[in-house]
Amino acid sequence: MTARIGVITFPGSLDDRDAQRAIRLAGAEPVALWHGSHDLDGVDALVLPGGFSYGDYLRAGAIAALAPIMTEVKDAAAKGMPILGICNGFQMLVEAHLLPGGLIRNAHQQFIRRDQRLRVENADTAWTSDFEAGQEIVIPLKNADGGYIADTETLARLEGEGQVAFRYLGVNPNGSANDIAGIVNERGNVVGLMPHPEHAVEPGFGPQTPAAMRSGVDGLGFFTSAVKAVVSAAV
Asked: N or C: which end of the chain has fewer CB within 10 A?
């Protein structure tokens, strides 16, 4: 079967087309979805892309979390559909209470853009199975409201139950608690992270590597992992 992965476009989304291309490169069919719809068009997985939905008014992702299609997103998450929130999409997931905690202004109060080293902490999710626990990867990062926060009890639970999916290495770029770059829900199907894997899927357009300029493709593993999860679930 060919997996069909939806990418939801909100007013202000910037990276929806990049996510669609990443899905195509992973061997799946990207399906464009609209924030005002109540139809997921029968997709097998979902990506909430990066950008500045609704201009980031109120709080980043706060208005998008109330968009009509988010009713269907919540239902799909509850049924186990693989869902990935990237940057602004991560912000939407926490605002919609599909993931715990919150995202606030970077500690240095500035927008940051860098190729960021990450450590994969949980390789047992629908979006990380093509990695190994402890593996180091490099993924582009670009955000202004990327500081992950949660109360002490929530942080302890995330750490104790293996719900930290990715951790910043080398430098904590935005002041995130416990160097957290991404988390996963208890079921393992909903993942959110601030870095942008869709910008590291094609040689010549990714992060720098010792092998060649712009040759990093560590982000492709997110999308191939989802394809395998979808195909496995269909068997």
From this structure: C
